[in-house]
Specification:
Clathrin_H-chain_N, alpha+beta, clathrin light chain binding, TPR-like_helical_dom_sf, four-stranded antiparallel sheet, structural molecule activity, Clathrin heavy chain, Serine Threonine Protein Phosphatase 5, Tetratricopeptide repeat
């Protein structure tokens, strides 16, 4: 049996990896490529649905995810899953990255979807088709492509295909019609924007390169089965000139007789073999040639329906899943298909083309025979075509080339060998031998540009021999060829020859080839020095071990290339490694001898630290680079030698350099600089001394400057540190130097601003100098309070002008101390007064001035000054205080001043008066409300009347509390004056009230009663004051009850309700009764008798006296509570008050007072219509056997509960009354029972 032309394998059984049988179907199992199978299922016993993803390319590994979705499809080759839920919600997830890529919600249900490319999904809804690029951030939601045709209405969509250019789309659907499955398709052209309805079950797109065509033709192939037959159609879409037109193909599809209901379900086109794979519902597979439609093979591969298929990733076959769960793959068997076709002579041409198209073995003999035959016939063009198209190029040999070369060239025509090469170039890439044979004539004809074109197109088989051939004509092109051929040595040589030095190292690294770089550097440097340095640097950067750095430097130096050598070494030595110390030294030597400025810049960048510092220092000194020499020298002798050349050293550097020296060496160098040339070096020495003053020590620097007797040096040095120093000696030295330099302004400034000097020492120095300008001395004495010394010194030296300067310009606030000092030296009063008049009063602290003068008992001296100050508008309180004291001492009508003036300090003046005149102190304290001071002075001097009047006028509860405290030994004396004089004389009720409240708060009831009787019982403004009368009575009720009765009779403006209630609260019931009786509040008075005195008889007598209904009602209630029923009912009758009828009925009934109750109820019925009243009255009639009255009552208008009364009468044995009750309401049942009891049978 001949071998099959296909490879057919079962890749996987889904049941074997945990897939349930019911989950294997079109709706729950999807296959988008030969990488993944995706299944939705719900495991048995689990409420959680899941998605299983089987990786067919990874050992059938299964990935499970707890996902609930309507549909799930995997990307072709990435772990990206597309999920659909609710028909409209679409989500795309990257399972590997565990992230969401995109999501959207459609406006209508998606009925079918699939990946049509590696980036995009096709979505089919009931009305439209959409594309959605999930990797394009700009495409947030799917883009509508076209609307569905009516021919798909009612169809189940089973596929959607798009061509590679996304210009053509086809939707495939099936429907049940007249007992068979009908296929419907909609083919849509994006460019034309139109659709075509086609009857068909399966469709696909493919590309085919026709013979002699410059480009591929786009083909659309579809299959259908109708009632009359089945056809496979292959048509061209988007024909492009100058391609030949593809002739439409329509071939029959064979179905076995028993497969009457079978139909195509899927179709895939193999791009590799140009073969159509057609799968039917019953599991048959058909293979057709895409170009001719010829049937290659047909057989059944599955007894179960294959419901989904996809192309494999190599484009050579298909993979599919059947309902049994088998994952099946089918592809062309390259080793058997050509022999299989050749079994049928009719398929010879197909086998011939298929072998050429796909490079399949099995047709070599056929090709060899045809090639030989064509050559023999002289059909060289077709012979060349046959050789060019031979399977796997087995005819493309040197022998074939030689045979074509031996064919003579026809005049006016292209030689056969060039025609052959042209065909090979159209087909693809030449091999190395073909390329060599073609290159020779092309270069001979000076058509190098053709080689460049073919090189760019990748159609030349490059070799070292080809590069050698081209190098003569074009080194750059040869370099490309060498690279393609892998001839690394010759590539580098070509790069060097063409000057592309910068490419050498990257190329060497990329191919792993290591040339002799030192030789290359030498070669490049001779050709191009700049490139040589750059080349060497690049190599050293990448891998310094590739070159010998010393040898490279020798190369540069041998050609005098110091600059290039420097650049190279700077780059190489940038890491500053210890082992490169000799190279660092060599770099610096080279530049110090040839380019000192470059060496200076290198040293300034501080790039290196491992060179020979002593050697470099000597070279720097020889080159005149003193700063660099100093930086490198370490021995003191060399340092001193260099540092003396200050004219060659920038001062800033020199100053900074001293910071590196030891203290001793630094001072030695400064001494040497002063000794060698003090004029030239003094400024530098001063600046250095300023900067390192803390390091060297001010004392040693001062000693150094004093050694050379330079006051100028001292002045400028100390001037630089005096503002920051805390050394008193330094400041003193500066004051000395500045004084000797005549810089008195600076002396004045330091004396004023500095805190770091000994004021006594400076004061004495300045006094000794006998300066013409005493301002520095004045400042020192002013700051450190040497005022007395200053005044004595200036007064002794008759420098009155300086005293005036001091108090007028320097510190007027020191005027009091100056005046005191002048008084101490018995200065003439006129001078003192003149000095005072020369100073603005506003700037003099009057208090201090008064204190100074007062302490010397010369206060009257100030009177003219103070009066003048006052006249000038100065309103300082101190002025008034001083005037008050003067008026008091001089007895110049002080009472008037103290009473009328509001500007003095009452506390100060009062204190001043205490020992002189307590009355004046009282006036001052009273004016200033200095309460405690006033209380003390009046108490000490027994001025209680004045104190009482002040307290009453002051009206401050806190002050009252203070004086009425038990701790006040003078309280009784004060109270006597308050009661006898202060309060009776007051006309302000508010102030009196505050005083009264103070007595209350102090818990002084006896004194309070005494006070109140004084102002109420005796004629006064407050005799009729209701609040005070209330207070008097309340206080008496609490502390002296015997007075209350008298107050009740004598007072009329108190509040009876409050007072009576207070009496009740303290058990004074008779007084409360009297108050209510006097106020005609009879009901409240009765209440006191009933509730508190508990005398009903007195209450009844009082009711007889006043004869008021409300009083009788109150008495009646008390009598009722005392079970004096008859008296109570009588009282209610006198009050005509039936309001308490429920209690009266209850108590009277229990007491058997029916007759009295009848009277009360009759009275009550006059004003009330209540059922309890009428019911009680009716039953009273029953109990008292007043039957006629009962009958009359019941006949009249009433609201009595008659039946209830009848039942009660019956129960209690009042049968006659019960008879009357039942008869009145016609209750014959209960009446008959009653009559039986009465033995009344008529």
């Amino acid at each position: 049996m001949a071998p099959l032309p296909i490879k057919f394998t079962e890749q996987l059984q889904l049941n074997a990896v945990g897939v349930q049988q019911q989950s294997i179907g079109f709706n729950s199992c999807t296959l988008e490529s030969d990488n993944f199978v995706c299944i939705r299922q719900q495991a048995e016993g689990s409420a959680q649905p899941e998605v299983l993803i089987v990786n067919l390319k990874n050992g059938n590994n299964v990935m499970r995810r707890p996902i609930k979705a309507d549909s799930a499809i995997m990307h072709w080759n990435k772990e990206i899953i597309a999920l659909k839920a609710g028909g409209k919600t679409l989500q795309i997830f990257d399972l590997a990255q565990k992230s969401k890529i995109k999501s959207t919600t459609m406006t209508e249900d998606v009925v079918f979807w699939k990946w049509f490319s590696e980036t995009s999904l096709g979505l089919v809804t009931d009305t439209s088709v959409y594309h959605w690029n999930i990797f394009d951030p700009a495409q947030v939601s799917p883009q509508k492509m076209f609307e569905r045709n009516q021919n798909l209405s009612g169809c189940q969509i089973i596929n959607y295909r798009v061509d590679d250019d996304e210009q053509w789309m086809v939707v495939v659907g099936i429907s049940q019609q007249q007992g068979r499955v009908v296929g419907s398709m909609q083919l849509y052209s994006k460019a034309r924007g139109i659709s075509q309805s086609i009857e068909g079950h399966a469709a696909s797109f493919g590309k085919l390169r026709l013979e002699d065509a410059p480009a591929d033709s786009k083909l659309f192939t579809f299959a259908n089965r109708t009632q009359t037959g089945a056809k496979l159609h292959i048509v061209e879409v988007d024909h492009q000139s100058p391609n030949p037109v593809f002739q439409k193909k329509a071939v029959d599809i064979y179905f076995p007789a028993e497969a009457t209901n079978d139909f195509p379900v899927s179709m895939q086109v193999s791009q590799k073999y140009k073969v159509i794979y057609l799968v039917t519902k019953y599991g048959f597979i058909h293979l057709y040639d895409l170009e001719t439609g010829t049937t290659i093979f047909m057989n059944r591969i599955s007894s179960d329906t294959i419901f989904t298929t996809a192309s494999d990733s190599e484009g050579s076959g298909i993979v599919g899943v059947n309902r049994k769960g088998q994952v099946l793959s089918v592809s062309v068997d390259e080793s058997t298909i050509i022999p299989y076709l050749l079994q049928n002579p009719e398929n010879g041409e197909l086998a011939y083309k298929l072998a050429s198209r796909a490079g399949l073995p099995g047709a070599d003999n056929l090709y060899q025979q045809r090639f030989d035959q064509l050559l023999t016939m002289g059909d060289y063009q077709n012979a060349a075509k046959t050789a060019a198209n031979s399977p796997q190029g087995f005819l493309r040999t040197p022998q074939t080339i030689e045979r074509f070369k031996s064919v003579p060239q026809q005049q006016g025509q292209l030689s056969v060998i060039l025609q052959y090469f042209g065909m090979l170039l159209d087909k693809g890439k030449l091999n190395q031998h073909e390329t060599l044979e073609l290159a020779r004539p092309v270069l001979q004809q000076n058509r190098k540009h053709l080689l460049e074109k073919w090189m760019k197109e990748g159609k030349l088989g490059c070799s070292e021999q080809l590069g050698d051939l081209v190098r003569i004509h074009d080194v750059a092109l040869a370099q490309q060829i060498y690279q393609e051929a892998g001839a690394s040595q010759k590539v580098i040589a070509a790069m060097a020859e063409s000057g592309n030095f910068d490419q050498i190292l990257p190329y060497s690294q990329s191919v792993g080839y290591t040339p002799d770089f030192n030789s290359l550097i030498q070669h490049v440097t001779r050709v191009n020095p700049e490139k040589g340095a750059e080349f060497a640097t690049n190599i050293a950067r990448e891998d310094p071990s590739l070159i010998d750095i010393d040898r490279t430097v020798d190369i540069f130096q041998s050609q005098g290339m110091v600059q290039q050598a420097t650049a190279f070494l700077l780059d190489v030595l940038s890491a500053n490694k210890p082992e490169q110390g000799h190279l660092q030294t060599r770099l610096l030597e080279m530049n110090l001898m040839n380019a000192p400025q470059v060496a200076d810049a290198i040293l300034g960048n501080e790039m290196f630290s491992h060179y020979d510092r002593q050697r470099v220092a000597q070279l720097c000194e020889n080159s005149g680079l003193m700063t660099r020499a100093l930086e490198h020298y370490e021995d003191p002798a060399s340092i001193k030698r260099c540092i003396m050349q200050t004219d060659k050293i920038p001062e800033e550097f020199l100053i900074n350099y001293f910071g590196r020296l030891t203290v001793e060496l630094g001072l030695e160098c400064l001494d040497e600089m002063m000794k060698v040339n003090i004029r030239q070096n003094l400024q530098a020495v001063i600046n250095i001394a300023k900067k390192y003053s803390d390091l060297f020590g001010p004392t040693r620097i001062i000693d150094l400057l004093e050694k050379y007797r330079t006051a100028e040096g001292l002045y400028f040095y100390l001037g630089g540190i005096v503002n920051i120093t805390e050394d008193k000696d330094v400041t003193y030295k500066y004051i000395e130097a500045a004084t000797r330099m005549g810089q008195l302004n600076e002396v004045e400034r330091i004396c004023r601003e500095s805190n770091s000097y000994d004021p006594e020492r400076v004061k004495n120095f300045l006094k000794e100098q006998q300066l013409t300008e005493q301002l520095p001395l004045i400042i020192v004495c002013d700051r450190f309070n040497f005022i007395h010394d200053l005044v004595l010194y200036l007064y002794k030296n008759q420098q009155f002008k300086s005293i005036e300067v001091y108090v007028q310009r320097v510190n007027p606030t020191r005027t009091p101390a100056v005046i005191g000092g002048l008084l101490d030296v018995d200065c003439d009063e006129n001078i003192i007064k003149g000095l005072l008049n020369s100073v603005s009063p506003q700037s003099i602290p009057i208090d201090e001035l008064v204190g100074e003068v007062e302490s010397r008992n010369r206060l009257k001296l100030l009177l003219p000054f103070l009066e003048a100050t006052l006249a000038a508008g100065n309103q300082q309180q101190a002025v008034y205080n001083a005037l008050a004291k003067i008026y008091i001492d001089s007895n110049n009508n002080p009472e008037k001043f103290l009473q009328e003036n509001d500007m003095y300090d009452t506390l100060q003046v009062g204190k001043y008066c205490e020992k002189r005149d307590p009355n004046l102190a009282f006036i001052a304290y009273s004016k200033g409300q200095n309460d405690l001071e006033l209380i003390n002075i009046t108490s000490e001097n027994s001025m209680f009347r004045a104190q009482g009047r002040y307290l009453l006028e002051r009206a401050d509860p806190e002050i009252w509390s203070y004086v009425l405290s038990e701790n006040n030994i003078h309280r009784r004396s004060l109270v006597d004056q308050v009661v006898s004089t202060a309060v009776p004389q007051s006309q302000d009720p508010e102030k009196v009230s505050i005083a009264v409240k103070a007595f209350i708060d102090a818990d002084m009831p006896v004194e309070l009663i005494e006070l109140l009787e004084k102002i109420i019982l005796e004629p006064s403004t407050f005799s009729d004051n209701a609040n005070l009368q209330n207070l008097l009575m309340l206080t008496a009720a609490k502390s002296d009850r015997g007075r209350v009765a008298n107050y009740i009779q004598s007072l009329d403006n108190y509040t009876p309700e409050d007072i009576a209630q207070q009496c009740i609260d303290v058990g004074m019931y008779e007084e409360a009764f009297l108050i209510y009786k006097k106020a005609s509040q009879h009901q409240e008075a009765t209440g006191v008798l009933v509730d508190h005195v508990v005398s009903i008889d007195r209450a009844q007598e009082y009711a007889d006296q006043v004869d008021l209904p409300e009083v009788w009602s109150r008495v009646a209630k008390a009598q009722l509570d005392g079970v004096r029923v008859s008296d109570a009912i009588e009282s209610y009758l006198r009050a005509q008050d039936p309001s308490n009828y429920p209690e009266v009925i209850e108590v009277a009934t229990h007491s058997g007072k029916d007759e009295d109750l009848i009277k009360f109820l009759r009275m009550a019925r006059k004003t009330l219509r209540e059922a309890p009243i009428d019911t009680a009255l009716a039953f009273c009639y029953a109990r008292t056997n007043q039957l006629p009255e009962l009958e009359e009552f019941l006949r009249g208008t009433n609201v009595a509960n008659v039946e209830e009364s009848g039942d009660k009468a019956y129960e209690e044995g009042y049968h006659e009354a019960a008879k009357i009750f039942y008869s009145s309401i016609s209750n014959w049942a209960k009446l008959s029972t009653t009559l039986v009891h009465l033995e009344d049978y008529q």
